[in-house]
Amino acid sequence: MSEKKPTPGVAKQMGKVCPVCGAKTYSHGGIHPQCAVQQADSARAEELKAARKSESNAPKPSSWTKKKCPKCGAEPHVRRKVCDCGHVFF
Ligand SMILES: [Zn+2]
Ligand SMILES: [Zn+2]
To answer: pLDDT (tens digit, 9 = 90+) per residue, 50-82?
Structure first.
């Protein structure tokens, strides 16, 4: 009947918007190569973060200023090299 309406969106599809920086990109993957690298880096950073988090969740010695003597179970100060029982720390 009447003339066809121009389909909105077609023009948009001509230039894709980079999901990283939000600017138009004509790159094949719809993302700037440098932004793709950035995205990969941030993904790796997230992984590193998660790894560090799980590391910090690992049980720590109750006190790093003290160490336990395997011989008598006493906890002399970490700077002491010889326990009261005679056990020598390395
Ligand atoms: Zn981009
Ligand atoms: Zn001891």
So the answer is: 988 887 766 565 556 677 899 999 988 888 889
The answer to whether residues 18 and 53 belong to one domain is yes
41 and 68 inside one domain? no
- For residue 48, the CA-to-ligand 1 centroid distance in Å is 23
Ligand 2 centroid to Cα of residue 65, in Å, is 16
Tell me: the pLDDT tens digits for 28-43? 888 999 999 999 999 9
How many domains, the chain? 2
**Rounded distance from Cα 60 to ligand 2 centre (Å):** 21
Examine residue 85 and state whether it is found in any structural domain, yes or no: yes
DSSP code per residue over 16-63: EEPTTT-SEE-STTSS-HHHHHHHHHHHHHHHHHHHHHHHHHS---S-
